[in-house]
Design goal:
The protein is mostly helical. The chain has 6 helices and no strands. The longest helix is centred in the N-terminal third of the chain and has 40 residues. The radius of gyration is 20 Å and the shape is elongated. The C terminus is likely disordered.
Length: about 230
């Protein structure tokens, strides 16, 4: 390998490392946003909801940074095979992280509205679905960071369980509306919050799929896996 080739390789590795570092920073901020949003809901800490909303701007800025870095790497180094998949998956991951952060903001905003009303007993019922959603999210990030294909593949069936949890909460809250019509607006907030958590699971599933693609060049979204050489 020539000196020039070694220099180019070192530059590429540094650029890719910075790209992944920014993606993982996005993931950390998104995790914090989710925790603050749910503390706002479950503990009636509206200040934490404000922190979630404030973090969104930084997450959005990082998404733009990751996109710019990814495009620059593609244009400058023209990576192939595994290296190309690493860049593509990082850019796709940042998009899913931005959308998860959006869901956290929506949870925070509706939680703040609920906190201005008398306490509602059924709020606590959303604790388990939040725990499942944030666990899926964290596992998807760990699968991406560690190239853990087995963990990434486990997310799909677990996301279906989250979907069922959301359906059960919907049934329960719909029943509550009939027995306590004076709080219908509050129950609607809870229905939307449960839906946002279900969407977080969907994005975690997307991240898991991208982790498999990055590691093995397999698209598990479809029955036929395609190998990229």
């Amino acid at each position: 390998m020539t000196v020039r080739s070694r220099h180019i390789l070192k530059d590429f590795e540094s650029a890719l490392e910075l790209l992944r570092a920014n993606v993982l920073m996005m993931a950390s901020l998104t995790d914090r946003s989710l925790q603050n949003a749910m503390t706002c809901l479950l503990d009636r800490q509206s200040r934490n909801g404000a922190l979630t909303i404030a973090d969104e701007e930084e997450v959005d800025a990082l998404e733009k940074t990751v996109d710019g870095q990814g495009i620059n790497i593609l244009l400058r180094f023209q990576p192939v095979a595994f290296d190309l998949r690493q860049v593509i998956s990082a850019m796709k991951l940042s998009g899913n992280l931005e959308r998860i952060a959006d869901q956290a903001v929506k949870i925070a905003e509706r939680s703040q509205s609920l906190n201005r009303r008398p306490e509602l007993e059924e709020v606590s019922a959303l604790g388990p679905i939040f725990l499942e959603a944030i666990t899926l999210f964290r596992d998807s990030i760990r699968a991406y960071g560690d190239n853990d294909v087995a963990l990434a593949r486990s997310i799909l069936p677990r996301d279906k369980e989250l979907d069922e949890m959301n359906r059960q909460i919907t049934r329960d809250l719909t029943s509550c509306m009939s027995s306590n019509p004076s709080r219908i607006t509050d129950y609607v907030h809870l229905l939307f919050i449960a839906r946002y958590m279900e969407r977080i699971g969907d994005h975690a599933k997307n991240i898991g799929e991208d982790a498999v693609y990055a590691a093995e060049a397999k698209d598990i979204r479809h029955p036929t896996n395609v190998l990229v050489s």
